[in-house]
Write a structure and sequence with these properties.
2 domains; 12 strands; Rossmann fold
């Protein structure tokens, strides 16, 4: 069965070009010209991925991503942005995007990211269904509910993205061990991931906001300079 992709883009030329490219590659694609239409189309049908432009009139890509995640959907989202500022990418990831592509982008790059994200999503679904992975687990003061994609810490609950859940599982499996950036990227994003370690750093920053009492002074997810990150079991006591 063909994978179905929702393309949300207000520029008609880009939108039409993306639809043509995706369909020529064997995908089924449907277009939405703005965020309001996109949410109506998304509620009406089942999609395997969303390509989402950030800057749109009426309802921005940020708003659409937030509403999709609020509905409980974990559909893979790739954000398309003409901006290169770090804050835009961070905000997109915080709202649940799985990857982003900065305009102007090449067709081959976009298709590679689409294919890579489909492979990663399939691997994560298989991993989540394995019997040896608990549905709920505890990391010191942090309680993780994998079925609901939620984390509870310091009296507050937050929703988790699939990537954040995977990172927490990796920390749970290897507490107090310095995990390299390459290891975390390979395990959570897949060995074919085309991005940089900066994406990992951004996800860790957002995860700290959900589990740390003071994200500016992290006591649970420690940075191991020159290596990666470590979940500090000493801080749990």
């Amino acid at each position: 069965m063909k994978k179905k992709i929702l393309v949300v883009e207000d520029d008609e030329n880009i939108r039409t070009g993306l639809i043509d490219v995706l369909e020529s590659e064997g995908f089924e694609a449907e277009a939405a010209a703005d965020g309001i239409i996109a949410l109506k189309v998304f509620e009406r049908d089942q999609f395997d991925m969303v390509l989402l432009d950030l800057m749109m009139p009426g309802k921005s890509g940020y708003d659409v991503a937030r509403d999709i995640r609020a509905s409980g959907s974990q559909v893979p989202i790739i954000m398309l942005t003409a901006k290169s500022e770090e804050i835009d990418k961070v905000l997109g990831l915080e709202l649940g995007a799985d990857d982003y592509v900065t305009k102007p982008f090449g067709v081959r790059e976009l298709l590679a990211r689409v294919s890579a994200l489909f492979r990663r999503s399939k691997a994560m679904e298989s991993s989540a269904s394995e019997e040896d992975e608990p549905a709920t687990f505890q990391l010191g003061p942090v309680e993780v509910d994998a079925l609901r994609y939620e984390v509870r810490a310091h009296g507050e609950s937050h929703s988790l993205t699939p990537r954040e859940l995977k990172l927490l599982r990796l920390f749970y499996a290897r507490p107090d061990e310095a995990l390299s950036r390459d290891f975390l990227l390979n395990e959570a994003w897949g060995v074919d991931y085309l991005g940089t370690t900066r994406t990992l750093d951004q996800h860790i920053a957002q995860l700290r906001k959900k589990v740390e009492q003071d994200p500016s002074i992290p006591s649970l997810i420690a940075t191991v300079h020159g290596v990666g990150y470590r979940w500090m079991i000493d801080a749990e006591n």
